[in-house]
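Can't attach files on this board, so I'm pasting raw text. These are the components:
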Amino acid sequence: QVQLVQSGSELKKPGASVKVSCKASGYTFTSYTMNWVRQAPGQGLEWMGWINTNTGNPTYAQGFTGRFVFSLDTSVSTTYLQISSLKAEDTAVYYCARGSTVPDFWGQGTLVTVSS
Amino acid sequence: DIQMTQSPSSLSASVGDGVTITCRASQSISRNLNWYQQKPGKAPKLLIYATSSLQSGVPSRFSGSGSGTDFTLTISSLQPEDFATYYCQQSYTTPRTFGQGTKVEIK
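---
Top answer:
Structure tokens for the assembled complex are below.
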């Protein structure tokens, strides 16, 4: 069965970096684009962008350029979200979701808390 | 960017009620519209894709309709497990924007 398993919660200080992982199983990893979606506390869903798992080419939404980097390791069917120079406003749950037109399977979410 | 606007932002209803949530796009998105359900502390779950196609395993009391700029999600008879927040998302172009959500609460 299709599964996306994300890494665990993170507590970071402002200015630090974090790398969230999303490990896929149950399907051919390179057949589906992987989205990243942010949900700030008590807020709605915000599409951050995606990465083409065939080419490794990322696409970033406005507001997620510069400090946000999507990457992947096809040998372990895993995509990554790295956020650098963390700010308090980066505190959120980050989800990976499979599929460019119909994001059908989602990871369980990773809570990143940025606090001094 | 295409703006997605849901209404209402919240609603109260009773078990057995019929409920309709609307989603309006700022420009035509043809039928490239998905609906998600999210419960507290959980990941969103795909309910309907391409406006009206029911995702596997989703009960038939959920249905979707629309095209162009105006879309609806209908729950024909609310069940206790349906109390959640619902989001629409356009898949016509990038960025893949979401509506702000509609919270369905128990009356």
